[in-house]
Structures are given as C-alpha cells and as structure tokens.
C-alpha cells in the first residue's frame, strides 16, 4: 500500500509529478490556450464583479490560500482576503451579497472551515470549494468550485494536496483573468506552458533527493529553524516551517524575509539554520541582501535557489537547486525540497512521520 516507500508521506511527496498532472488533465490545454473548469466557469461573472474574494482555510490549505491571494491580485486585479476559518467564524464578519468565498480544504471536513462557509452562505455569499475529497461536506455545501484530484492523502502532513491546491487556484486565477481581460495574452499563454512543465520539474527535484537527505543529517539536531521568503515564496516559508514542526518537533518559524529586521533577527547566531526560499524572481536582489544579513551574524544559510544562480549559491552554507520557473508557479517547486527536508529530519530523529503526535488528519472538532 505504501508502494515500496517507507512511509505514506514519502510516497505522497514522490507522487506529486503524477498528482499535479492529474489535477491539470482534461482542464489545461496549453496548445489551445484553454482552461476548462465547469464549476468555476459558471460563476465567472460573479467572481469578476465581486467586491472581493475571501479565501477561507486552515493550516497548509491556508498557506495555499495566501499564495493564491498574491496570484489573484496580480492577474485578476480583484481584492482578496485570506482568513483563518476559526477566526473568521467567531467574529461577526462583514459579508455582502455577491461576495465570493473560496474555501480551500484537503479533507472537505474541517469543522471550522465548514461552519465558516455555512455562515457566509446564509448571508448571501457565493461559495466555491477547492477540495480534494470528492463528496465531502465542504464540497457538498459549496455552490461550485473545483476538485484538486490529488487522490487519497494518508500522511497527516499535507504534501501532494498542497501542490494540487496551488495548481487549481492558479488555474482559476488564470481563467478569470483571461475572461476579465486583465492578463496580457502572451503572459497568459506563457503561464499555461509554465504550468504544463511543472510535473517534469518536480520530478527533477525528486531525483535530487539524496542531496536533501545529506542536508537533513547535517541539521537534524538544531533546536530552532527560521524560514524566510518574499512575495509568492513568503507562504512557502510558512509552509516549510509548519512541515518541520509537525514532522520533526523542531521549533520553526516562517517569516517574510524583510520582517526579520523587526524582531526575529535577534535569534540569529551560529547555531541557527535559516532556510531561504530564494528562487529567482522580481524580489531576488532583496532576498540576497537578507541572506547577507544572516551570514554577517553567523547564521547558517540553507538556500532553495534557482539552478545556476551562482550569486545565491556563494552565500549559502548548503543549497538545494530547483529548475527555473516563472515566479507565479515557483512555489509549486520550492515547497518540494522543504517537504523532503522535514521528512528526512523527522526520520533521522525517529519520529512518527505519518502520524505525528497530537495531530489528526482532519480536524472535525471546533
Ligand atoms: O483538510 P484541510 O485542508 O481542511 O485541513 C486543514 C489543516 O488541518 C491541514 O492543512 C493541516 O494543517 C495539515 N495536515 C498540516 O500538514
């Protein structure tokens, strides 16, 4: 059942080239320049005319929502808010008729997310689900949406569901931007091709897993980790830190790299590994200077960098390369080494990686 892998988590990480492909199959046609998603298409007008989109989720799914916020705002020029379901539901949120809610959930059973969308539905919002489990409660209560089609995820730590969420949310943003006319035709076509190339690029990263295992051995006894990223990669930093905490029980924090100066930099000493999600993008020079700041304080820099980026490499104590990609799709690649890093550290520490202590696969209590 684990298909020759030691753990479900590893199996699911390695399934990603296939699950990402499955998630685009029959939907994305890069040659014709089309994205087919009936459950979104139906609500396209409402989405375009919405005052705002509210993305509601918990945990890893919330991180996917944060990436989507950046993508939607950039490509669709629609106002987006991302909310923790638990916070959203317990205040008296302002929802106007015609607001569009995107509920993101692997299980489709997370209690807080479910109640949050029930409330919003009563107030007249349109609910669109981005859900993995077919026929789950969140899928049923939603007006429309799109399944992630990642297949059953057994490991408590979400891996393949996260990358599938990123793919679906990106396809939704592209579809809406195209209908709205807020994206340039060339950029649209380029991004379709970029998505198309993701499974192959993820497979490339997975082929380099031995190198990540070596890095895991080197840092497994660290007491704390810091994860830093900017822009589209900021939520990837949060996700990397969450994966490490839950799998290895090492304290880890994710931050937008520029926030470091506002407090967390006080933590930096020669003991502290700092993981930079530093793939080449519009913010690259900025993140390089953040890396220099950590080096100057003797922190250990572990970089997730674009293949061939010698400038970043020179600043890293250790690095993991990922293939070149447009910044919008880069999180789908950058997260994969972070999943593997936490997996290998967890295994090296003899942790129960498939079922970390105190955690449940779906949180059906409030
Ligand atoms: O099933 P959901 O996506 O609604 O679950 C939300 C979170 O409980 C979940 O993403 C959790 O954070 C992950 N299992 C962590 O790896």
UniProtKB/TrEMBL annotation:
Gene encoding the protein = glmS
Functional description taken from the UniProt entry: Catalyzes the first step in hexosamine metabolism, converting fructose-6P into glucosamine-6P using glutamine as a nitrogen source.
Subunit record text = Homodimer.
Q: Which reactions fall under this protein's catalytic activity?
A: D-fructose 6-phosphate + L-glutamine = D-glucosamine 6-phosphate + L-glutamate
Main location group = cytoplasm
Do the record's keywords include Lyase? no
Q: Which residues of the full protein are shown?
A: 247 to 612 of 612
Q: Which GO terms describe its molecular function?
A: glutamine-fructose-6-phosphate transaminase (isomerizing) activity
Which residue positions are annotated as catalytic? 361
Which residues belong to any copy of the SIS domain?
Answer: 43-182, 215-356
Which controlled-vocabulary keywords does the entry list? Aminotransferase, Cytoplasm, Glutamine amidotransferase, Repeat, Transferase
Report the protein name in the record: Glutamine--fructose-6-phosphate aminotransferase [isomerizing]
The EC code for this enzyme is 2.6.1.16
Q: Where in the cell is it found?
A: Cytoplasm
